[in-house]
C-alpha cells in the first residue's frame, strides 16, 4: 500500500505533497511543521549515513523500514529529494522513484515554462498531478 | 561482513562501540558518540512523521552498507552495520543481545546505563562475529 509522497527542493521547501492513505498524522494541526520535521529528519539521516559509512556518502541513503512502514528515498544530482512512504510489502522502489523523476517530473515540471526551480513555491501543475496519480495507481503495490 | 556495532542506552547515550572487521570505516570517539545520539533521535522522529502507527527505525539500506536496529523492551538499542550482501543480521543482533544479558547485565561491577567495559563481553562478541564473518566469506 502506498501512503504518501513528498518532493523537497534543496533548501528544504516542500514542493509537492500528496497522500493516498494516511491512517495517522501526529502533526495534523500543523502541516508546515510536519513537512519541516520530515525534511529535517532526512537531512540528519543523510548526514548520519554518510558519516557511518566513512567518506561523504552523498546519495547513499535508499530506504529505511520500521515495523509498519518503509520510507523510500531518492536524491537527484540537483538536490531535489523524493520521498515515498509505503507499507513493508511493496519491495524495492528505487526504480519507481527514478521513473517519477526522470519521466514524469522532468517532462511535466522541469520543462514547464512557468516552473521556477529556485522559488521554492508549492507546485500547482494539474498535468503533473494527473500523470503522477495515473502512474501510482498503475503500480501493483498501490493497494 | 559486519562492520560496526553501537549500543545506545534508553536515554540516547552511546555505551558501547566496536569495529567488527578491518573494513569498518574509522570513526573518532567523538564521532561515534555523536552518531549514537543522532540515531537515537532519528529513531524517535521516524515514528512521529510516520503515516501509520509505527515503531522507530528497524532497518536502513544504503548504497554501501545496511543497518539493523534491535530495540529491547528496556529501551536499549543495538545497532549493527554490515556490507550489503551480509545475511542473518537479525540473528546476530539477537546473539549479541544474549551476550549482553549474560556478560554485561550479570557482571556485578557493571552499573546500568553506563559505558560497557566488560572483558568477557568483548571476547565473546569477537568470537561470535568472527564465526559469522568466516561463514559469509
Automatic annotation (TrEMBL), chain A:
InterPro entries: Longin-like_dom_sf (IPR011012), TRAPPC (IPR007233). Coiled coil: none annotated. Belongs to the TRAPP small subunits family. BET5 subfamily. Transmembrane segments: none annotated. It comes from the Eukaryota. PANTHER family: TRAFFICKING PROTEIN PARTICLE COMPLEX SUBUNIT, TRAFFICKING PROTEIN PARTICLE COMPLEX SUBUNIT 1. It is found in: Endoplasmic reticulum; Golgi apparatus, cis-Golgi network. This is Trafficking protein particle complex subunit. Part of the multisubunit transport protein particle (TRAPP) complex. It comes from Tribonema minus. One of its GO terms (biological process) is endoplasmic reticulum to Golgi vesicle-mediated transport. Keywords: Endoplasmic reticulum, ER-Golgi transport, Golgi apparatus, Transport. Signal peptide: none annotated. Pfam families: Sybindin.
TrEMBL record, chain B:
It is found in: Endoplasmic reticulum; Golgi apparatus, cis-Golgi network; Golgi apparatus. It comes from the Eukaryota. CDD domains: TRAPPC4_synbindin (cd14856). Transmembrane segments: none annotated. Keywords: Endoplasmic reticulum, ER-Golgi transport, Golgi apparatus, Transport. Part of the multisubunit transport protein particle (TRAPP) complex. Belongs to the TRAPP small subunits family. TRAPPC4 subfamily. This is Trafficking protein particle complex subunit. It comes from Tribonema minus.
Amino acid at each position: 500500500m502506498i501512503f504518501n509522497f513528498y518532493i523537497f527542493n534543496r533548501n528544504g521547501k516542500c514542493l509537492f505533497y500528496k497522500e493516498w492513505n494516511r491512517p495517522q498524522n501526529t502533526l495534523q494541526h500543523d502541516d508546515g511543521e510536519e513537512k519541516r520535521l520530515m525534511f529535517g529528519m532526512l537531512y540528519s539521516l543523510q548526514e548520519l549515513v554518510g558519516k557511518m559509512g566513512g567518506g561523504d556518502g552523498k546519495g547513499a541513503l535508499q530506504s529505511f523500514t520500521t515495523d509498519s512502514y518503509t520510507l523510500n528515498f531518492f536524491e537527484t544530482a540537483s538536490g531535489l529529494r523524493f520521498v515515498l512512504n509505503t507499507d513493508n510489502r511493496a519491495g524495492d522502489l528505487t526504480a519507481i522513484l527514478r521513473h517519477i523523476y526522470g519521466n514524469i517530473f522532468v517532462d511535466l515540471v522541469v520543462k514547464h515554462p512557468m516552473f521556477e526551480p529556485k522559488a521554492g513555491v508549492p507546485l500547482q501543475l494539474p498535468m503533473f498531478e494527473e500523470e503522477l496519480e495515473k502512474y501510482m495507481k498503475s503500480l501493483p503495490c498501490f493497494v | 561482513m559486519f562492520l560496526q556495532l553501537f549500543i545506545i542506552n534508553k536515554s540516547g547515550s552511546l555505551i558501547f562501540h566496536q569495529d567488527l572487521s578491518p573494513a569498518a570505516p574509522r570513526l573518532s570517539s567523538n564521532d561515534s558518540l555523536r552518531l549514537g545520539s543522532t540515531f537515537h533521535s532519528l529513531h524517535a522522529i521516524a515514528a512521529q512523521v510516520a503515516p501509520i502507527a509505527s515503531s522507530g527505525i528497524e532497518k536502513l539500506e544504503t548504497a554501501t552498507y545496511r543497518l539493523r536496529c534491535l530495540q529491547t523492551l528496556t529501551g536499549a538499542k543495538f545497532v549493527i552495520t554490515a556490507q550489503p550482501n551480509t545475511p542473518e543480521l537479525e540473528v546476530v543482533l539477537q546473539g549479541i543481545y544474549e551476550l549482553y544479558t549474560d556478560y554485561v547485565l550479570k557482571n556485578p561491577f557493571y552499573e546500568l546505563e553506563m559505558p560497557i567495559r566488560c572483558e568477557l563481553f568483548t571476547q565473546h562478541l569477537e568470537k561470535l562475529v568472527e564465526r559469522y564473518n568466516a561463514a559469509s566469506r
